[in-house]
Amino acid sequence: MARILGTGIATLDIINTVDGYPAEDSEVRALAQAVRVGGNTANTLSILAQAGHECRLAGALAGDMNGRRIASELELRGVDLRHARRIEHGAAPTSYILLNQQNGSRSIVHYRDLAEFSISDFMDIDGIDSCDWLHFEARNCDDLAVMLAFARSVVTDQPISLEVEKEREGLEALWEYPDIIIFSRAFVQGRGFALPEDFLREARSWAPQAILILPWGERGAWALSKNNQLLHSPAFPPIEVIDTLAAGDTFNAGLIHAMLSGRSLADALVDACQLAGRKVGQFGLDGLLTPLAAQENVLCPLNSLPDPGARGFEVEDGGVMRAIFVVRQGLEAYGYLNNCPHLSAELNVTADTFLDEDGRHIRCALHGALFDIEGGRCFAGPCEGESLTRIGLRVERGQVIFRASAKPPQLR
Ligand code: ADP
């Protein structure tokens, strides 16, 4: 696994999901609220850490309550903070995000009043040359140009990537250093380009040495290789788009992971779009790159299930296809064979309807047998005392994971 140094900021995101963008000077009730660590580089590192990479954050961390929360959440996700600069009396940057459930739009109010990670902080990092990849976020450009020049002078073979999300003063001082520059669609459109290929050809003159990358939401992503080959990958939309926040950060993680694994640029672009597509189908970043053991399959993100609620799946188990259903209760998921012990028939007649009206019990639609959710035991109805067959499931980092039984041994 690789050692990755990411230079950028970490924020606390306070995300309110609303049923429509509120009118000015009005009050609305949020449908849901989540508080989680954000910031482009922090997100990208958190995802890369899932794949077992050694990820180190070079960024400023405030000593206030929010800052401490950011630090502990990052550490929990496996991000190493040994190079972070702790600013005891600073206030952590926060992003108040309104996520409009109707159209997925994300409106962000960002607050920041924390000193930047400085040139001397960067130069004090021990062992930059032992890193396999250096990733930077384009901000504070005058200082960043010095850091990039320094990095370039100490690392020779290791790639340096730069993410350019927003228009900022002094960007042109950065172009000469990176091997890979990832632009955002918003930046490109802000420069007046409607077509990705037009922008990439223009940007080629800024950074003749670099691979240029341009993710473009639901249209996928483009790349211009060092020898000016234009590559494109489509997007990989999930069945339902649930949360597009940090799609770009996930794309970056997917790209870095793929390139570190020796994938070609064309394949890395596809891998990055696939990972970002998976991300927009779930809430948050957990479980995106976690390797699964053999025999394990991700069924769905836990947050894509209603709470309480249930969904049916077809899974391969021991070499045969089986109908199962998964019941969600808060942070838990329970899985059962879709087979009522009464008449050995499926429990549901309409799709995904496995619970009673208030969602507190499993109910067979045929004869009304009721089962408890936690154990699958029938406590009322024609098969009282019998149980549903439990299926091996676990919830890890936000994903519901199904473990198939071992295949039956082959008969000679
Ligand atoms: P950002 O989060 O920086 O605005 P983009 O919107 O460009 O980033 O998305 C980054 C990547 O995420 C895209 O290249 C694409 O692969 C994926 N993506 C974003 N939105 C969707 C979507 N609605 N469906 C499928 N993939 C998406």
Topology:
Elements: E1 3-7, E2 11-18, E3 32-38, H1 40-50, E4 54-58, E5 60-62, H2 65-76, E6 79-80, E7 85-87, E8 94-100, E9 106-111, H3 119-123, E10 133-137, H4 141-154, E11 160-164, E12 180-183, H5 185-190, H6 196-204, E13 211-215, E14 221-224, E15 230-233, H7 247-260, H8 265-280, E16 296-301, E17 309-317, E18 320-329, E19 332-337, E20 361-363, E21 370-372, E22 378-380, E23 390-391, E24 393-396, E25 399-403
Helix pairs in contact: 1-7, 7-8
The protein binds adenosine-5'-diphosphate.
What does this molecule look like?
21% of the residues lie in helices and 30% in strands. The protein has 412 residues and is of the alpha/beta class. It folds into 2 domains: 3-280, Ribokinase (UDP-N-acetylmuramoyl-L-alanine:D-glutamate ligase, 3-Layer(aba) Sandwich), CATH 3.40.1190.20; 296-403, 3-layer Sandwich (Rieske Iron-sulfur Protein). The strands form 6 sheets. Strands 6-4-1-10-11-12-13-14-15 form a 9-stranded mixed sheet, with helices on both faces. A 4-stranded mixed sheet has the order 3-2-8-9. Strand 17 and strand 18 form a beta hairpin. The longest helix is centred in the middle third of the chain and has 16 residues, at 265-280. The site of adenosine-5'-diphosphate (ADP) has 19 residues, from helix 7 and helix 8.
CATH names the topology of the largest domain as UDP-N-acetylmuramoyl-L-alanine:D-glutamate ligase
Mean pLDDT: 92
From the spread of the alpha carbons, the general shape counts as elongated
Low-pLDDT stretches are 407-412
Structural class: alpha/beta
What binds here, in terms of ligands, is: adenosine-5'-diphosphate
For the record, the count of structural domains works out to 2
User: What CATH architecture label of the largest domain applies?
Assistant: 3-Layer(aba) Sandwich
Report the β-strand fraction as a percent range. 25-35%
Return the CATH class of the largest domain: Alpha Beta
Q: Any idea what the radius of gyration is?
A: 24 Å
Largest sheet geometry = 9 strands, mixed
Give the number of DSSP strands. Answer: 25
Multimerization state: single chain
Strand order of the largest sheet: 6-4-1-10-11-12-13-14-15
Helix content: 10-25%
